[in-house]
Amino acid sequence: MGRCAAVQVVKIDEEMGKCSGQELKFFNFINGGVAMAGTFRFTFGPWNIHEGADPFGPEVRSTISFNDKLSLYKELGFDGVQFHDDDAVPDLDSLSRNEVIEQAKAVRNTLKDHGLEAEFVAPRLWEDPRTIDGAYTANDPEVRRYARERSRLSLDIAEALDTDLIVLWLAREGTYIRESKDSKTATDHLVEAINGMLNANPDIRIAIEPKPNEPMDHAFLPTTGHALAIAALTDDPDRVGVNIESAHAILAGMDPSDEMGFALAFDKLWSVHLNDQNGLKFDQDKSFGSVDLRRAFNQVRILDRHDYGKRGEWVGLDVKAMRTQKDAVSTRHLSNSREAFLALLEVSRSLDQNRIDELIAERDYEALDRLIIMALLGRT
Ligand SMILES: [Mn+2]
Fold first, then answer.
1. Among the options 85, 86, 87, 304, which is catalytic?
2. Nearest-angstrom CA–CA distance, 162 and 156
3. Residue ranges of the chain with pLDDT lower than 50?
4. How many angstroms does the Cα of residue 247 sit away from the middle of ligand 1?
5. Which residue of 60, 171, 217, 326 could cross-link 126, Cys pair, CB 3.0 to 4.6 Å?
6. pLDDT tens for residues 219-259?
7. Could you tell me if 27 and 101 lie in one domain?
């Protein structure tokens, strides 16, 4: 946090040098228009550029090294990097705490060389064999202890990378069968784990990323409401918020923009994972807006209307390239998602709010519906 609006203005001037004509038109529009409202900075995690393996087939693209990925960020229009703990420090379980910190500091220098910043660090607690049946909520106390220790290393990595944000995607904190864990006890264990992090570092903030299922049948913190409610049970509720992923909200049967609005009302929306999802199936991480343009529009609109980004929050994309993409075009999902966000932002800001207010006052929602559809079709 703490990145002021003035810095963002400078950023946007830097950005303009490498913009398309259409984007320049957009920047001119906002610079001359709505009082410098919301200039957004974009981020993604290195896992968004990947080899294309899925549960039914092997890798189909060559591996791009972490450093080579970093050199792609700027040209794709991104200024920030999201990290799993082991994206920053591979094999951290086999290293001493000092070694972990040293390696993370080296990554921070590499980021600086690329003109990039770290947005957050997320402890990856779902791949180690010990965490097969959960990490913080495992029935085995030794596993829970491992999870808490690894999480504390994430705090060290975050500090070394110059970010105060930890994201918790609680992948295996749930059940395959109801009787295998007690949900009251599991909630207590989650609070205990979060308290361990809050008390280990007084500056760190924790953003829980809710998801209702996958890999588990049922997850213990499926929605934004659950995440904000558990914050209230912790030792420092002010330092526990959310990272809302569009697809996860859709999988929970929620509208992502409503989830975001709810978190914004609590001042707890500290990160987003924008993407899209085509109905109730496996988590797809499709490009932003690729399934439901109006749903994407409403996410952009709620973020922009309530000054998301003004206090340093990043617009995070969590999108997966289709397996069919060839190597040379395997990053298009990222630039396309960012472009969709900016185009939808332009649509949102071009709307005649007075006319919308009139239609709301008249309760003529058919006319409002048409106004939005025509705006999305570019027929205003
Ligand atoms: Mn996802």
1. 87
2. 10
3. 1-37
4. 6
5. 171
6. 999 999 999 999 999 999 999 999 999 999 999 999 999 99
7. no
Catalytic choice (84, 189, 226, 273): 84
Angle, nearest 10°, between helix axes 332-350 and 365-376? Answer: 140
Conformation bin of residue 268: beta by default, left when phi > 0, alpha when psi is -120 to 50: alpha
What spacing in Å lies between the alpha carbon of 284 and ligand 1's midpoint?
Answer: 6
- Give 343-371 pLDDT, tens digit per residue: 999 999 999 999 999 999 999 999 999 99
Sign of the four-CA dihedral 323, 328, 334, 335 = negative
Say yes or no: 144 and 230 in one domain.
yes
pTM for this prediction: 0.90
Q: Are residues 297 and 208 both part of a single domain?
A: yes
**How far, in Å, from the CA of 236 to the mean position of ligand 1?**
28
Q: What is the pLDDT of residue 13?
A: 40
Domain that holds residue 348: 40-352
Give me ligand 1 centre to Cα 159, in Å: 26
**Confidence at residue 38, expressed as pLDDT on a 0 to 100 scale:** 54
- Same structural domain, 10 and 134: no
Residue 84 among the catalytic residues: yes
What's the gap in Å between 356 CA and the centre of ligand 1? 33
Catalytic residue status for 114: no
